[in-house]
Design goal:
The protein is mainly alpha-helical. The chain has helices at about 10-20, 30-35, 40-55, 60-80, 95-105, 110-120, 135-140, 140-150, 185-200, 200-220, 230-250, 255-275, 280-295, 300-315, 320-340, 345-355, 360-380, 385-400, 405-420, 425-440, 445-465, 470-485, and strands at about 130, 155-160, 180-185. It has a three-stranded antiparallel sheet with strand order 1-3-2. The longest helix has 21 residues, at about 60-80.
């Protein structure tokens, strides 16, 4: 037996081009991208190149093949690769990883295959926190099984960076139980194992999928989307939530799918606190949530919640008209299903008005906000976080019509109430504080506006970091106060408060 090293992107591309010279690849970038996606694995490169040169190749370019892999079509591709060399089963890609698993089973480590199958349910390109696979699920042999998989090269054990938010938003203490130890798999191993999972009998396949969802739900059970100490844990879980929703949803029963969608909704909500709500990944997650929720039927509460999240994603990415077009249908569905005064219905009303507000329809937004607040106070209470958030948005609509003093008074009331109920560190309180500084500066009291900004900025730098949207907004307001600008307007405003 001869051990082969992984090839570089350039060397892997050369293998692909030599085996499939008829594939057009100007500049060689597509071949390098595909070689990188295959992890430089010599056997995988050989089989993909051979497959691409065959008459039955379905994907006619290297970039198309990589796109199919990234679009969760790995299992289908693996089946095609295994058919390249049917004469010698040792040359099939799947067989390469069956050998060490069979060896472990013969040495009284029978749980290797199941643990590997659970791991591949999550994001293939992102290390999995070890604690996501809790030992009580796998039994006392969990550590032994994990070490054995590591020993045969199927699982790589590492550690994530500690003490810093992966998005570089700043230091965020992690209160969750997720450890820094992580588990990583080669992307080709993931594709092969997923192909094997899909080939299992329906009952076995469903059991693997349901267990993966239970693990994800347990990891998120004690997390809160608006609690800063939980944001690092959400950062670690978000890619795994997205991957699970994208490819496991179709293999779950109704109960399991509802649990997965609830975790997805909470993960999506955490993006506002983390400060990544406008990232392309947020919209991708919302779209995957919508596709999965449709399996439950149109008008199901989870389906309406998913479309609500998609509307939030549209808003945060500046596509206000798309958000305004989407929210009315969600509002109608929630009003019919839950009732016009249900908290979810009221929150959708708030988001619809939020899509109107940045279009400079301030008088219209003010009227709608005042009507909404009457219902919110009556149903949810004056001190509910969503009620307080809507007050801040009302203040913005009022202030942008030239009534800065009235807007400042609304923000002061929110800060006073919110600090007592939610705490000074709550993002809603900080948002109101930031707006108060803006309106005080608008009134001409630049010194007081600067004081407010500096006090808030110190808290945000410590708790949110320098790149969080609220921190950036406070920095902008501080600059305006220092320069003594007469009229202050934001370049960007986060009106959405995810539920």
């Amino acid at each position: 037996m001869r051990e082969l090293e992984f090839l570089s992107d350039e060397a892997g591309a050369a293998v692909l081009r030599s085996l499939a010279p008829q594939v057009v690849d100007a500049g060689g970038r597509a071949a390098e991208g595909l070689a990188r996606r295959l992890g430089g694995l010599p056997l995988a490169l050989h089989l993909v190149g051979t497959y691409s040169s065959s008459s039955f190749a379905r994907w006619q370019s290297f970039s198309a093949y990589e796109g199919a892999l990234n679009a969760e079509r790995g299992p289908e591709l693996v089946a095609g690769l295994d058919s390249v060399s049917p004469v010698d089963p040792r040359a099939t890609l799947s067989h390469v990883w069956e050998l060490p698993l069979d060896s472990l089973a013969s040495q009284d480590v029978p749980g290797g295959r199941r643990l590997l199958y659970l791991l591949v349910c999550f994001a293939p390109a992102t290390p999995v926190p070890r604690d996501l696979l809790t030992s009580d699920v796998e039994g006392a042999s969990f550590t032994t099984t994990l070490r054995s998989l590591n020993a045969v090269g199927l699982v790589e054990v590492g550690r994530s960076a500690s003490g810093t938010d992966p998005s570089a938003a700043g230091p965020v203490p992690a209160a969750s139980s997720l450890s820094r130890e992580t588990l990583a798999l080669h992307p080709v191993v993931v594709d092969i194992c997923r192909a094997h999972i899909l080939a299992l009998p329906p009952r076995e396949r469903a059991e693997i999928a349901e267990t993966a969802v239970q693990l994800l739900a347990e990891a998120a059970r004690n997390l809160r989307d608006a609690r800063p100490s939980d944001w690092l844990a959400w950062e670690l879980l978000l890619p795994h939530v997205a991957a699970t929703v994208a490819w496991l949803a179709a293999h779950l029963g109704t109960a399991g799918l509802e649990v997965l969608l609830e975790v997805c909704r909470r993960a999506f909500a955490s993006r506002w606190g983390i400060g990544s709500q406008s990232a392309p990944e947020a919209e991708s997650l919302a779209r995957a949530e919508v596709e999965a929720a449709r399996l439950l039927g149109e008008g199901h509460p989870a389906e309406l919640a998913a479309r609500h999240d998609l509307g939030n994603a549209f808003f945060e990415r500046g596509r206000l008209h798309e958000a305004e077009d989407l929210f009315p249908a969600v509002l109608a569905g929630r009003s019919t299903l839950l009732g016009p005064e249900h908290p979810d219905t009221l929150v959708t009303r708030d988001r619809l008005i939020g899509a109107i507000l940045p279009q400079e329809r301030f008088a219209e937004a003010e009227t709608l906000y005042r009507e909404l607040l009457q219902d919110m106070v009556g149903t949810m209470g004056a001190e509910h976080p969503e009620t307080l958030s809507t007050h801040v948005d009302l203040a913005y609509a009022v202030g942008m019509q030239g009534r800065a003093e009235e807007a400042a008074d609304i923000c002061r009331n929110v800060i006073e109430t919110g600090s007592c109920i939610l705490g000074e560190s709550d993002v809603r309180v900080r948002d109101a504080w930031d707006d108060l500084a803006m309106w005080v500066n608008e009134m001409g009291d630049h010194a007081e506006a600067e004081r407010l900004c500096r006090e808030l900025l110190e808290i945000e730098l410590r708790g949110l970091g320098p790149n969080h949207p609220l921190t950036l907004s406070t920095k902008a307001n501080l600059a305006r106060a220092q320069q003594g600008w007469g009229k202050s307007t934001r370049q960007s405003r986060n009106c959405a408060r995810y539920s």
